[in-house]
Amino acid sequence: MKTPSKKSPRGFTLIELLVAMAITTIIITVLVSVTSMALETWNRNRAEIRAARQAKSMIDTMARDFESFVSRRGNTFEWLYAKSNPSSDGPKGSASPNAIDLVFFSAATDRYEGKIGTAFPNNNGDVSTVGYKLTYKDPIAGATNDEFKTFVLYRKIVNPNVTFANILGQATIKAPFDTAKDVADETAIDKEENFICENVYQFTVTFHVSTTTAAGLKSVTVPVGKGAKSVEEFRVTGGGIQTTFVPDGVTNEQLKAGRLSAAEISITVLSDFGMQQMRRRSDLTGTKLNDFIAQHSYQYSKVVQLPGS
Questions:
Q1: Closest CA relative to residue 46, chosen from 298, 237, 279
Q2: Phi and psi at residue 114, to the nearest 5°
Q3: How many domains does the chain have?
Q4: pLDDT tens column, 8-44
Q5: Which among 88, 133, 167, 201 counts the fewest CB atoms within 10 Å?
Q6: What's this model's pTM, rounded to 2 decimal places?
Q7: Are the CB atoms for 194 and 182 separated by under 8 Å?
Q8: For residue 31, is it within any domain?
Q9: Do residues 100 and 224 touch, judged by C-beta distance below 8 A?
Q10: CA distances from 106 to 32, 71, 230, 298 (A)
Q11: Which domain holds residue 148?
Q12: Is 15 inside any structural domain?
């Protein structure tokens, strides 16, 4: 009787191992690619959400100020001042191409630090002075720290008692506003407590003016900033609107007699990654800079209807 021989277990051949390794490599490559795409999308969405939050904070604050805009006709006083004044400083020489200094009167609700009629004098009405300025600095450590510098938008509000004593009834309001003390008893606008929003690469306002022409009512837009169709300075005085450039379709006298009806706030907010790259790279110039800004920034705007002026 023959005893059946035992066969040793059959192992994988070299070809089978190679095929298995190839399939595993493909699966890992696909997983890495999907994970990378998901992370990129997540980072992009997170950057956009953060930029949107900052933009909303700034635009909502400015919109509330504009909604309470105060001006009067029939006098020689200035009521609103807007002038193109982008910061001359920037990361690796990439300064902001568009920014304005903005000062106007408003019945702002946060006058007297929001404690209206309690611990502060309230016998000079409710007209405050508010101003906005974009500058390039570290919002915490100040202008001396280059590592964390960014484009920062500041808002300064001057209480009604100081406004009444020093700014109201002046032919120009920018100089007295600059030297007036804000609600925190400071004169400089770029203080920590005046911080609103960071990474603001551009900040402009377009004013909508209703005029009367020979053909009837006409609405024109006057953007303040740099550019062929923009004005470098826009002022609202008791004698009318004054600019350094008159839009097409109206005369200087028609524009001067017009009524300021709305303000369109426009900002460009950089992502944190975009701001970091601008601080590190020195090759961002010309077309390359424009393409970089388009890729790593977000644009926001809002039209605010103004009370009758």
A1: 298
A2: 80, 0
A3: 1
A4: 566 668 787 888 888 888 888 888 888 777 776 666 6
A5: 88
A6: 0.82
A7: yes
A8: no
A9: yes
A10: 55, 9, 25, 29
A11: 37-305
A12: no
Residues in the chain: 309
- Tokens 């090759």, located at residue: 283
For the chain, the distance separating the N- and C-terminal CA atoms, rounded to the nearest angstrom, is 119
Fill in the amino acid letter for 282: S
Tokens 């100040």 found at: 142
Q: E strands within the chain? A: 78-84, 100-106, 128-137, 150-158, 195-198, 200-213, 216-224, 233-237, 240-243, 259-270, 297-305
The tokens describing 249, both together, are: 């379709």
Distance of alpha carbon 1 from alpha carbon 41, whole angstroms: 73
The tokens 């701001």 sit on which residue?
275
Closest by Cα among 120, 119, 133 to 160: 120
**Domain membership flag for residue 152:** yes
Cβ neighbors of 85 (< 8 A, separation 6 or more) are: 99, 100, 101, 133
62 contacts: CB under 8 Å, gap ≥ 6: 132, 155, 265, 304
Does residue 58 sit within a domain?
yes
Q: Which of 81, 84, 58 is nearest to 71 (CA)?
A: 81
- Which of the two residues, 235 and 33, has the higher pLDDT score? 235
